[in-house]
Amino acid sequence: MPLIPWPASKDDSPPKEIQALASRLRDIPAPVLTLSAFALGSVSTVSGGLLYRRYLRRIKNSDWVTPDVFAKKRWIKGRVTSVGDSDNFRLYHTPAFGWRWPLKFRVIPSTAKDLKDQTLHIRIAGVDAPEAAHFGRPSQPYSEESLAWLRQKILGKTVYCQLFRRDQYSRIVAYVTLSPNFLPGNWVSGKSLPLEMLRAGCVTTYLQAGAEYGKEGKEEYLRVEAEAKAARRGMWANGLTMESPAEYKRRHAASEGSDPPVKKIPAPQTPSQKSWLSRLFSR
C-alpha cells in the first residue's frame, strides 16, 4: 500500500498530474527552491506583521497614536471606561475580535489601577459643552446635567472614533458614533454622538478655527442646534440668552488678565513613503 492514499488505480501509482508536478520540481535547482521558500516565508511574515499592526494591535493610550493614524483619519472602536467632562471621555481600544461572546478571550480591565495608561483621552469633535467648575471658576448652568446625559449615553458602551488630531491638552480630537443596534459598526455607521448631544440641548456647536465636524459638516451641526433651541431642550429650557461655553471661557480669561487660550492646530502630517506591500494592507 502506498504511503499516500492516492485514488485507487490498477498500478497503485499517483495521478499523472502529480507525477508531472514532481518531475518539474526535480528539474528546479535546489538553490532556487531554497530561495523561493525563503521569499515566501518572508512575505508571509511581513504580511502577518502588517495585518497585526492594522487590525489586531491595541493602541494602549494617546501616546501610541502615530502621525500616520491622524493623516489617514483612521477609525477605531473601544469601550468607554470613564466620562470626566461633558465633551470628553476615556476609551479602551478593543481591536478585531475576542472581546465578546461567543469568542470572548480578551478582557477589558475594570479597576482604575489596571486602566492606568491603558486608555485614550478622547475629545469629541465639533461640539462645546457647558464648563464644569475648574481652577476656581464656577460651573456653568446645565454643566452637571450635560455630564449626566453623556455618562448615561456612552459609559460602559462601545463607540467608534475617527481620529483627527491631538489638541493642546494632548487629548485625541475625534468624530464619535454610537454602536449600531444590529449590524457591526464596521459595516454600518451608528448615530452621530455630537449630533445626539446637540439634539438633546447638552452642547453647542464648536465654532473656533480648525474645528472638525465629521461627515455631516458644520451646517448640519448648526441646524440641529437651532432645532434644540426652538424646542427649548436641555440648556435652552430657560431661554436662548445663556452664555455659551466659548463666551464663558473668554470672559474668565479676560477677568484673570490673560488672553483666552488659542487652540493650536498641528500642521497636517504627510505619511512617510511605504512599500507597495505596506500600502496594500493599509486602510
UniProtKB/TrEMBL annotation:
Keyword set, alphabetical order: Calcium, Endonuclease, Hydrolase, Membrane, Nuclease, Transmembrane, Transmembrane helix
Membrane topology (UniProt): Single-pass membrane protein
Listed PROSITE patterns: TNASE_3
Subcellular localization: Membrane; Mitochondrion
Domain TNase-like, chain residue ranges per copy: 74-238
Record InterPro entries: SNase_OB-fold_sf, Staphylococal_nuclease_OB-fold
Keyword Iron-sulfur: no
A GO MF label: hydrolase activity
Disordered: annotated segments: 247-283
Cellular component per GO, a single term: mitochondrion
Major localization listed first in the record, in broad terms: membrane
Segments traversing the membrane: 32-52
Family (UniProt): Belongs to the LCL3 family.
Protein name: TNase-like domain-containing protein
